[in-house]
Write a structure and sequence with these properties.
This is alpha-1,2-Mannosidase. It is an enzyme of class 3 (hydrolase). One of its GO terms (cellular component) is Golgi membrane. It is a single-pass type II membrane protein. By secondary structure, the chain is mostly helical. Among the domains are: 70 residues, no CATH class; 128 residues, no CATH class; 100 residues, no CATH class. The strands form 5 sheets. The protein has a 3-stranded antiparallel β-sheet. The protein has a 3-stranded antiparallel β-sheet with strand order 8-11-12, with no helix packed on it. A hairpin with a 5-residue loop joins strand 4 and strand 5. Helix 8 packs antiparallel against helix 9, helix 10 packs antiparallel against helix 11 and helix 13 packs antiparallel against helix 14. It is globular.
């Protein structure tokens, strides 16, 4: 008893109590930072605390902002604008959220009835598709390279394709994917109960490689088994690039009407995804009910740039092949929305709320979540025989903003494309960004202001960085033979950021 009374006083804390208090304090700090940096539209809060927004800077230059010491002027104008935008967004979101499933279904049904009356909906059977004069693209098949080395490499690639296709057909025919280790078919939930992704996706490759027996077997499967009439939720983006894109490619290569008919039928099934206040489509769609939603993790229910921005190639061709302008109108509206929005430093954030029409988190990436949006802008211009001037301008303006704000060079001389979060750079470049070297090279020929040579050099530098990341990763992984070695390189990574291992953090 004497010892206990001597060692404990009312004001002292035991070690465990101190540890608990430290944990509570750490959790509070984490919560505060999370609220600032990760909640939707948090950059609007940050702009008033740490940064000056572009609109405020513009007002300052024109002399329309009063001194903050007066208690009126700049702060009140900023707050009034934020309040107005917020109220507008709330009204739009409330109007959408108050609709029940039955009302949404009725709206979709009404739209379909209108389309049918105009010969543009499901009511107009795909048998009524207009006549299209098919022209087989030159050079797709029938040519062999003269160089024996290239000819041998080409034969090896075809051999690999044959091996892959034969095993898919043996173990997973009709499934979306083959799991090579277990040798079983697998169907990702990205496609709901829609089947045959590998078959549809491989059609153009089979044709170009002159694997005609395999192509005919795949065509027969499409005609007999590819069905879109199901109660299933699918990813609009994935179904568009894999199924719609695969069917369109197969049609353009072979001229078989089954592919045009199936592509248009599926396109009609995807149209309800655009039924949002802004016309920015949902990421997920139930093919039967036409009810859509976004990924729950995507910045407060936002649509993703790489998904809604990667639709217009296919949808423009759906209009051309069906004679129905509704497909083109839906994707051209996406451009209108993007043109209307203020873009931070000319950059496109990865998240956009389809109800309010406002950016979500100001996270910009040329890799995952953003990548194919830029690719499609360039290809829209090229595939229009360079008549889509709007697509061209959007692409080169975006590339200029990327080069100014995101492209950096490491201390070791490697050029990379960083990510941008609310004005702060994250100096990392993911694997998915490595397509950018090819994209920039592809667009270099049409670059404005005689920048063709510069863009080709930039494309080569980015490609070199990606090549180095792959080769160095292999080398470093070979060193990870035991726990001690792993700990050594972890130490290097933490205490020597200039080490090559830092590239693969």
């Amino acid at each position: 008893v004497g010892l206990r009374s001597k060692s404990a006083s009312p004001t002292s804390f035991r070690l465990t109590e101190k540890f608990i208090l430290l944990l509570v304090f750490s959790a509070f700090i984490t919560l505060c930072f999370g609220a600032i940096f990760f909640l939707p539209d948090s950059t609007k809060l940050l702009s008033g605390v740490f940064f000056r927004s572009s609109s405020v800077e513009a007002e300052t230059r024109t002399g329309t902002v009063s001194d903050t010491s007066t208690g009126t002027g700049k702060d009140e104008k900023i707050l009034a604008k934020i309040r107005k935008d917020h109220e507008k967004a709330l009204l739009e979101a409330k109007d959408t959220l108050q609709k029940g499933a039955s009302e949404i279904k009725q709206d979709i049904k009404s739209d379909k009835e209108k389309l049918a009356l105009n010969g543009q909906g499901k009511g107009a059977k795909t048998d009524s598709l207009p006549f299209v004069q098919y022209e087989r693209p030159p050079g797709a098949t029938g040519h062999e390279p003269a160089d024996p080395d290239i000819k041998a490499k080409r034969a090896k690639i075809k051999e690999m394709m044959q091996f892959s296709w034969d095993n898919y057909k043996r173990y997973a025919w009709g499934s979306n994917e083959l799991r090579p280790v277990s040798k079983q078919g697998h169907s990702s939930n990205l496609f709901g109960s829609l089947k045959g992704a590998t078959i549809v996706d491989a059609l153009d490759t089979l044709y170009i490689m002159e694997m005609y027996d395999e192509f005919e077997a795949a065509t027969e499967w499409v005609e007999r088994n590819l069905d879109f009439n199901m109660n299933a939720e699918i990813s609009v983006f994935e179904v568009n690039i894999r199924f719609v894109g695969g069917l369109l490619s197969a049609y353009y290569l072979s001229g078989k009407e089954v592919f045009r008919r199936k592509a248009v039928e599926l396109g009609e099934k995807l149209l309800p995804a655009f039924k949002t206040p802004t016309g920015i489509p949902w990421a997920l769609l139930n093919l039967k009910s036409g009810i859509g939603r976004n990924w729950p993790w995507a910045s407060g229910g936002s649509s993703i740039l790489a998904e809604y921005g990667t639709l217009h190639l296919e949808f423009m061709h759906l209009s051309a092949l069906s004679g129905r302008p509704v497909f083109a109108e839906k994707v051209m509206n996406i451009r209108k929305v993007l043109n209307r929005l203020d873009k931070p430093q000319g950059l496109y954030p990865n998240y956009l709320n389809p109800n309010s029409g406002q950016w979500g988190q100001h996270h910009v990436s040329v890799g995952g979540l953003g990548d194919s949006f830029y690719e499609y802008l360039l290809k829209a211009w090229l595939m229009s025989d360079k008549t889509d001037e709007e697509g061209k301008k959007l692409y080169y303006d975006a590339l200029q903003a990327i080069e100014k704000n995101l492209i950096r060079k490491s201390s070791g001389g490697l050029t990379y494309i960083a990510e941008w979060k609310g004005g702060l750079l994250e100096h990392k470049m993911g694997h998915l960004t490595c397509f950018a070297g090819g994209m920039i090279a592809l667009g270099a020929d049409g670059a404005p202001d005689d920048k063709t040579g510069h863009q080709m050099e930039l494309a080569a530098e980015i490609t070199r960085t990606c090549h180095e990341s792959y080769t160095r990763t292999s080398e470093w992984e070979n060193c990870f033979e035991n726990v001690e070695t792993k700990m050594l390189y972890l130490y290097i990574y933490i205490y020597d950021p200039s080490s090559p291992i830092h590239l693969f953090g």
